[in-house]
## 1
Amino acid sequence: MSPDDFNQWRRENDLQRLFAGFGRALPHFEEWLTANALTVDFMLATDNPGQFFYWDTATYCIKTVKQLTEPYLLEAGITQRVTYFFVPVHDARHERQIQAIQQVEGENEQVERLRFTPYFAWVREKHRLQNPIKTKYSGELSTFHYTSGTAPDVPEACNWSIAPGIQVLKLGGTTIENWATLQDRNLDFVNLDFLEVTGKYTWNEEKQIFFSTCNHLTIRNVVANFTKFYRCEVSDLKAFDSRLYWVEFYECNLYQAYFENASLSNLIIEECSASNFSFNRVEVDNIVYSPPRRERPLGTVRTYETVSANYKRFRILYQANGLRQEASEAYFQERYYEWRHDLATLELWRSFRYLWTVNPEYGLSALKANFSKLLTGVADGIAYVLWGFGERPLRILSSAGLVLLFYAAVYFFSDIGKLHGNFVNSLYFSIVTFTTLGFGDITPSESSGYKLIVGSEALVGAFCVGLLVAGFANKSRY
């Protein structure tokens, strides 16, 4: 089918069944339509129905109607072209800019705007329903998820149902030529599992896909440009001999992605549950990775573990491409999430409970392991604060300044003759002690207690200077 025929077929067939199911299963669905001056037919006419559910803020649907003047189009009976695009509102200033769009952009083009609140954002705000979708086996959900399927490993028989339990259109299990075939087609709420794309022909126009399954997607010798996936299921993604430019994933489940002899430019992975990346002979320009706040269904602890592993993969990839700054940042994030994972898995109280009430031998072993983990966590916490695991050496200057001021305040209120009540002398003495210069013009000979304080500042200063040197030397690794 041509894109227009394909979209028309979907509007008249599977999407009618899908939205009828939404009307029965989603609470206050009809009320939402009325409150936002929407109809199912209008949503389907945009060929992007997923956008009426995805965004968390008020959104404008902007419709443009262009009168066509080309003779060959008029002869074919095509007199106008209607397009829709969506703009989520960021703030009041942004909304004023949207509203300032002229009704008529040109002599043959007219613009109409419709402001609406996407369903899930509306039902949370209006009816305080955080989890409006009720499922039989997966409990209550805050948005659409694919919760059941059949034969997920068999291309010919693979089918998926989206919560609240409605089977989506199966389009995968086949091979298409070039990425441009996806252009201008409504691919929201579809099953694209086992789709294989070949051929380098592409279009430089943005393509958005919402709430679809794209498992076992394979691309070979492909140029893929400006494609965005929103809350899609993407597992076992394979890219061979291909170039991905501005391919983006938002709040997707992205598991097992393998890239071989590929070029990645501005690959964006934001708020995705993602793991198991593999790179073989890959050129990378930029990867933007923002981990999820909580990974469903793995939970917080596993989130830290998988995020740390992801940053490790990215660090190795950046190092292979000679991108030192990116490798340094990835190493910092890798160590940070590793530290948070260690703290999240600390179970000192449970170890004590096992020691006294359940199994003393096992409790003692667990207590030793957790105590060792606690010491490592404390050391990593100090390393994070002081110098960012070696990747933020300038933090040491801030730490050193705080140490100097702290000790200067101690000396200011001390009973050391030349320092008591004299801030300039106190700061001067703190500096020469911290840097271990020790000119000897001021000494804490009057009080043995202050001798120990002065000695402690000298030790801290020597430690910080050593860290500063090591931090800058650490950059040579990349």
## 2
Amino acid sequence: MMGYFNGGNSWVVVTGFFLIWFLLWLPFALVLKWYPLKPLTSKEKLALLAGLYLLAPLLVWLGATIKGVSWVDLGLETAPSFFISLTVGFALGVAGLGVIFSIEYFLGWLQWFGENRHRLFSVFLPILALALWISLTEELVFRGFLLNMLREEYNLVMAGVISNLIFALLHLVWEQKKSIPQLPGLWLMGMVLVGARLVDGGSLGLATGLHGGWVWGLTCLAQTQLMSYTGKGYQWITGLGEEPLAGLAGIVCLLGTGVVLMFIR
């Protein structure tokens, strides 16, 4: 079950965590000539994320050590049940995307390019590894460490609201123009993932799987050019800038996932 951290001001630790994380990452970002308003290519963003996410587990370990808690308290474990939950979550995440995109296809809002499916074989495993790495890191930081820290001060709902507001706003570091319309969707996504952790008895397995399924599915579609929007659908439904989280379709997908999680519980 989700444990509470003992003693100390959680906001001091949270502020210190993100400040140290940023300061340690900043030299790496400066080497790559990054600044907040600079447009990024996919390779540049991946390189910056790699530096950022390689630091995260070390800092989480340091914060957990200071507070006297274990990885299991944060929701991370090596029990078979963790990997079963991860697999179930991954399948659920991919299935949710499939349902939404299938509906949009039948409405004539997008088209599929089956002739490009051979591209999937070359990117399947690399994107899977990347998706799981990103998802596990973000779940450990935001639905693990940060959520537990805030539960020292607030109830679960309020801790979830605050931690996922931080999660959403931090996306503004990358491509503000694209990120701003996605903020409500990112916040809701985080809340659904908090629900997944609750359903999974405090483990991050289900949440990591869901997150990984969404990242893997969307990245594969983008990299293989298996689909494109026809322009017949309303952007406020399909997503501004062709970003599902910036439209009603993405919100419905998240809410539908939340309903499924309630039945799983």
## 3
Amino acid sequence: MAKPTLLALAAGMGSRYGGLKQIDTLGPGGETIIDYSIYDAIRAGFGKVVMVIRKSIEEDFKQVFFKKYSGKIDIEYVLQEIDYVPAGLSYHPERVKPWGTAHAVLMAAETIKEPFCVINGDDFYGADAFMQMATYLNRQKPEDTNFCMVGYLLAHTLSDYGYVARGICTADENGFLQNVTECTQIKRIGSVICYKDAQEVNHPLSDEQIVSMNFWGFTPAYFKELTIAVEKFIRERGYDLKSELYIPSVVSELINSKKVSVKMLNSAAEWFGVTYKEDRSYVVERLKSLTDKGIYPSPLWK
């Protein structure tokens, strides 16, 4: 059986960060956050890495990543561009914003033939999360519709410098995901975490709320349903300049229609990442601390 693949979403523009955070050197040896994810994935038994990037940063990624992984793990990349839409569909000609994470995953449909894990390229997920994910995916066949995710406590995923987007998760008594709702404006106001709805009304959330940080486990069976969802979205929303289709929206629809099951995996790992430029110093400090404790070597790649 083929080893699982790691699919890293790294095509974001970094508008709130002020640059390409995917290739920013944050570790004590000049490592990027993706470096740590790939390092943890190798230790967990993943066999290949596929990165989703944009044409405009293709050469930067080749220079930063591909030589360093030579001999360590197979690595490929696919491109995500606005005009990469299913045949026969049209969209607003002035659109510049990518179509979202669901569309990004679809770009790898012809490249990935084995169970795979999806991550954000600018998030640190922790070694245990990759171990739990690999264990689950190694039990799945390509045609299976038993998916999974690793969730994190909301209170540990905020930024002190502005709003963040998170998928709010609910699960049944057996630990299977029932619903995940994408909330794009979450922050702590005083002592209470709130999300702002479309009417600009704030709603409180628990610090213990489990959220999705785009750490998903799928099989290739997901691509068939994803193609249908993306086609429907662009047909209905293609002339919105800023509309995006997120992975949680597609997953929730598949759960509601009883086409898939999604197990919420338990992990002791802690998340951190960079949303705003001001988050950078905290991430640098955390990576240095993990290195000082001997959890990661420095430099990471020798």
## 4
Amino acid sequence: MENQTTSRIPLIGEKAPDFEAISSKGKIKLSDFKGKWIVLFSHPADFTPVCTTEFAEFAKKQEEFKKRGVQIIGLSIDSVFSHIAWLREIEKYFGVKVEFPVIADLDTKVARLYGMIHPESGTTSTVRTVFFIDDKGIIRAIVYYPSSNGRNIDEILRLIDAMQFSDKHGVATPANWNVGGKVIVPPPSTKEEADKRMKEDYEKVDWFLSYKKI
């Protein structure tokens, strides 16, 4: 049974729950960004050291997200006034302006909807969560981080590149893949296809693992 602080976490492959919320950019809905990929991420609190560095790095990479058709949305359970003051400090000290909305989730409505509050983490604030939502509104990946360690924004971009590339070309990507790297050809599903694969012009480790360049 769900308690006051937890809720079911939406799963990969499910439709991302829609919501309406107040943000640093005014009232927004998730459905406002229909047709775009979305990176919805939560942070424990404004004016905290690790979160400050993360926001500065997200802001520095804003154009990279835009190139990929990705909308960034931040969230914490601080007030919109706290968000405004904090974002002004980030601009002041890091020389970057946070252009994406930051949800002021004081009633924890969105945080509960996305399972961002973990009581056993030792705090009632939202944990570091990243939801990757595709242009069809489907949750494609979820990543959690401890409060002590900041996210790698380049890795978030890399995963978006990989998922978008897989969607476009119908292939999988290996560990540590980056744009321009070799991709994995879908494996054979029958004995006959496996025999045929061994004769095909791919870079093969064995019948179940073959690479190609696109």
